[in-house]
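Hey, can you fold this one?
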Amino acid sequence: MKTRHRHHEPLGAMNTVKHHLVILAVMGMLFMVCEVIIRVIGYPAPGRIDMTVMSFWAFCGYTSLWMFPVGGVCGLLIGLMNEKILAAKLPYRLQVLLGGVIITAIELVSGLVLNVWLDLGIWDYSTFPLNFMGQICLPASLLWVAMTPLAMWIDDVLRFYLIGGHKPETLWKYYRDLFCHNPDA
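Sure. Predicted structure:
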């Protein structure tokens, strides 16, 4: 299995702050949009999410404003894998799996704080299979793994347009490389 070297040279202090703020904002907004789309089309099947459990913090009944910082942090951490030599040298499939684990961990921590401790009732996976305290579940974790290449690609595109560097490959190639034995084929 080929390793996708996504490692980039460390950024200067000003570029680092700028890049991280843009990643937080873009990923936070995209996370909210994705949640709205997933809930509108039905995740994992229509009728499985009880919208009556949504709290005041719910945005239009489909997402929460709290998902902005949660999604932003997830995107930022996935993007930081670019800057860490050890993570960047991992096989690409392992990088994608690690990204899904990172998102699931952030979802668990934020769920325990927002839903359990603060009792905001933003999401509840208790009716989903293989859930933990209703805050994370296997179907959502698999979705996060599937969305990790998208997050990696967005980070690479933003990095390219904000600070230069290598032009990223197409989004299609990021996904194709997961399933091909020879990613360069």
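Strands lie at 58-59, 63-64, 131-132, 136-137. Let me know if you want another pass with a different chain boundary.
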